[in-house]
Amino acid sequence: MAQLQAISSCSSTKLLCHGSNRDAARIYNKVHCPRKTEELGVKASEFHGHAIVQNRANFGLACNNHVIQAVLASDKEAMASSGADGKVLRKKLNKVVLAYSGGLDTSVIVPWLRENYGCEVVCFTADVGQGVQELDGLEKKATASGACQLVVKDLKEEFVRDFIFPCLRAGAIYERKYLLGTSMARPVIAKAMVDVAKEVGADAVSHGCTGKGNDQVRFELTFFALNPELNVVAPWREWDITGREDAIEYALKHNVPVPVTKKSIYSRDRNLWHLSHEGDILEDPANEPKEDMYMMSVDPKDAPNEPEYVKIGIIEGLPVSINGKELSPASLLSELNEIGGKHGIGRIDMVENRLVGMKSRGVYETPGGTILFNAVRELESLTLDRETMQIKDVLALKYAELVYAGRWFDPLRESMDAFMKEITKTTSGSVTLKLYKGSVSVTGRESPNSLYRQDISSFESGEIYNQADAAGFIRLYGLPMRVRAMLEKGL
């Protein structure tokens, strides 16, 4: 069940606590609120499960007496208004939900939004399996940056069940290699942001994506599809900050604590499906990745010297068990990541075509996903006929393109998904795979719906297939080629 945490605070304020002193101690201070904050409360969202609000005490917040004078206008008009420091605002917004990671970029976006849009900022963090180390201390970081509220939602099960598994069933792979790790995560995060915006009464959403990448498109197309009335703010397309040094300078100027964690030389994105690496030496496609870059998988040469066999149970095109043990979608994928990573499975190095037109080089680790793709595809060799399999493969290419381009909620993808769901109804059974030093090989497959018949396929004579019938078939099947040859020879 999805969990929702909300943490709200306000600085330079007079806290009027109506709860116990013990409850009041849980309220974080040091957030500058531009206006009186309403009583904190979040409804249960439309996600599977209930929202849980971390609100220990009823309290009133009397904030600084800064009044923002705004001129109401239409969505398309620029609004002239002044913020707390007298700065002319780009546009007056009430409350913005920001996709927040706690890193330098999103930390400086918080005061930038308040300074340039005169708004309250609600930071939102989605747990899609990036690891607890990336979620630690987010409350303090958000409040120290000036956010009035932090919302954290556990989306791991929804991510795997409703986004990863449909792509797996469809056989969606982008440009022959990429298993769409980041592409699938962005719409589930953006969908949650739209829900949170409704819950907290926000009139805008914001993200920290650059103007050169694919993610800006993925976020914003989801916003458009689910709530076209929301304003979208993309600071990287608006502000004067051009790099890390500018961001640090802005943070210090606005008393935002600069993250003390060591800056990675790589740009990484991690979730339960994969870990991507970009930047530094990888920007030259001729350079071999350094071994110390990898985090989810061991070097295949250092993997166990004995192979490991894994049996994946599948029902209607979706995995349900490992070695006979039924698991939830997120638990199943997590366990396969451990198994696959131990054997160096799932490393991919590729140059891909970004949606915005440029080529980029990325290295991906997808241990559990690689195992699952091999298993599902192999079971289809038993359960799908030739024509169906060929059409499915053709559509899988388009399906992958739509997901990569951020068109998850496009009617075309949804319609294609209905097709994939229908034709894989018979794809049930199990596949046994051997994992050994970076390789995945199939050793067995079985299905109650198998189209394979040993009595037909056997080289021994059978009643159903008469080998003498092949002569007539070949003559008819090869007739066009025979006629063309006769024409060329004047026969």
UniProtKB/TrEMBL annotation:
GO molecular function: argininosuccinate synthase activity; ATP binding
Subunit and partners: Homotetramer.
Protein name as it appears in the record: argininosuccinate synthase
SUPFAM superfamilies: Adenine nucleotide alpha hydrolases-like (SSF52402), Argininosuccinate synthetase, C-terminal domain (SSF69864)
EC number of the protein: 6.3.4.5
Pathway: Amino-acid biosynthesis; L-arginine biosynthesis; L-arginine from L-ornithine and carbamoyl phosphate: step 2/3
Annotated InterPro entries: Arginosuc_syn_C, Arginosuc_syn_N, Arginosuc_synth, Arginosuc_synth_CS, Arginosuc_synth_type_1_subfam, AS_cat/multimer_dom_body, Rossmann-like_a/b/a_fold
Organism: Buddleja alternifolia
Gene3D superfamilies linked: Argininosuccinate synthetase, chain A, domain 2 (3.90.1260.10), HUPs (3.40.50.620), Single helix bin (1.20.5.470)
Domain called Arginosuccinate synthase C-terminal: residue spans: 266-483
GO cellular component, one term: cytoplasm
Keywords for this protein: Amino-acid biosynthesis, Arginine biosynthesis, ATP-binding, Ligase, Nucleotide-binding
GO process annotations (BP): argininosuccinate metabolic process; L-arginine biosynthetic process; urea cycle
Occurrences of domain Arginosuccinate synthase-like N-terminal (ranges): 95-257
